[in-house]
Structures are given as C-alpha cells and as structure tokens.
Amino acid sequence: MLSLTASDNPATSSAGAVIQPAWVRLLHWINAAAVVMMIMSGWQVYNASPLFGFSFPRSITLGGWLGGALQWHFAAMWLLMVNGAIYLVLGVASGRFRRKLLPITASGVLSDAKLALTGQLSHADLTRYNYVQRLLYAGIIAVGIVIVLSGLSIWKPVQLQWLTAAFGGYDTARYVHFAAMAAICGFLVIHVVLALLVPKSLRAMIIGR
User: Fold this and answer.
1) Which positions ≥6 away from 25 have C-beta within 8 Å?
2) For residue 6, which of 22, 18, 20 has the smallest C-alpha distance?
3) Which stretches of the chain drop beneath a pLDDT of 50?
4) What's the pLDDT at 7?
5) Total Cβ atoms within 10 A of residue 60
6) 3-state SS record for the chain
7) Distance CA 181, CA 83 (A)
8) What is the pLDDT of residues 50-106, one digit of tens each?
9) Using CA atoms, how far apart are residues 96 and 19, in angstroms rounded to an integer?
10) What span, in angstroms and rounded, lies between the C-alpha atoms of 190 and 209?
C-alpha cells in the first residue's frame, strides 16, 4: 500500500513538509523531458507535411530531417507513455489525484481566476492546489491522453483503424493531434511563468520541500 507523504496529509502544515514526494518529482522531470523531445521532433515531422500555411523554424526542431525526427518522436513517445502510465497509476492508487485535484467547481475556478488576475491569489500553502491549478492539471492529463491516442491512430491507421475512425479519420486525427500539441505548449508557457513567479514551487519540485 502506498503511504501518504506529509504533503498529502491535510492535517500536516506546509512548514517543513515534503511538498512534492520523490516519485512525483522523478516522474515530473522525466515527463517534462519526454514532452519537450516530442514537441520539437513533432514540429520537424509536421514540417514534412504541414497542415497549415506555415512551418516551424529548423532551429527549434529536433531530428534534422523526417527520418531522424521520427526516431526521436517514437523514442520519446514510449518514454512518455510508460512514464505517464506509471504517474497515472500511482496518482490514482495513492489517492493523490483525488486529494489534489478534486473537487473542481465553476464558482471556485472563477473566484480564483479573478484573484489571480488581480494579484491577490495566495501561494502561501503549496500543499494545496487552488481551483485554477486543479483545472489546469486535470485538463493537461486529459489532453495528454488525447495526444497519445491520436498519435497512435496516426502512426498505425491500418492496425488501429477503429481508433483512427474514432477520431474521424486519419486527416482529422492529425488536426486533433496538432490541437493537443498546441494546448500542451500553452500549458507549458503558463506553467513555466507561474514557476518563475512563485519560485518556491519550483524549489519544491526539485528538492521536495
């Protein structure tokens, strides 16, 4: 049975507590590396057959050419799928997702969003996520599942034709995959900005406290 960490116990104050358990920190940074590799290599794959009237600058892509980009993309894909699956299982089994991400209410999100936009949202207690954080983190988990499934439907459209069909066909799956990638990029920008604005949250993800 997975034991609770100090940060997962509501009765424990945040002072001196382990905010982010070791398994969360490890899986978080592996996920971060895998996502960055997938995005950069994915941009190179996209450039080989653009969906829109633009291409990504070569300087921010990974792989050098289509074949190299695909190798990077598949390697990062397996890393993300395995690491992400472990994260999901441990998050559910330990009860962390339930404690950290629930409940999510429209009134709570609107209230905390207003406080955040006016600079009044408190970050004193890092053991608890505000409603905006809960929505963003729950949302990015859902987007992560969508991008993996749409990616599989693009990779194996014949073998997984039922999955490709569920996305409305191969071409539509590509648009879904791109939209999910854009959502992840948007999340990363917000995530990094907030980490810089609240540096103690970044410290907690590095050393735990």
Assistant:
1) 205, 206, 208
2) 18
3) 1-14
4) 46
5) 10
6) CCCCCHHHCCCCCCCCCCCCCHHHHHHHHHHHHHHHHHHHHHHHHHHHCCCCCCCCCHHHCCCCCHHHHHHHHHHHHHHHHHHHHHHHHHHHHCCHHHHHHCCCCHHHHHHHHHHHHCCCCCCCCCCCCCHHHHHHHHHHHHHHHHHHHHHHHHHCCCCCHHHHHHCCCHHHHHHHHHHHHHHHHHHHHHHHHHHHHCHHHHHHHHHCC
7) 18
8) 999 999 999 999 999 999 999 999 999 999 999 999 999 999 999 999 999 999 999
9) 12
10) 22
| Long-range CB contact pairs, 204-209, < 8 A, 24+ | 204/19, 204/20, 204/126, 205/20, 205/25, 205/28, 205/29, 206/25, 208/18, 208/19, 208/20, 208/21, 208/22, 208/25, 209/16, 209/17, 209/18, 209/19
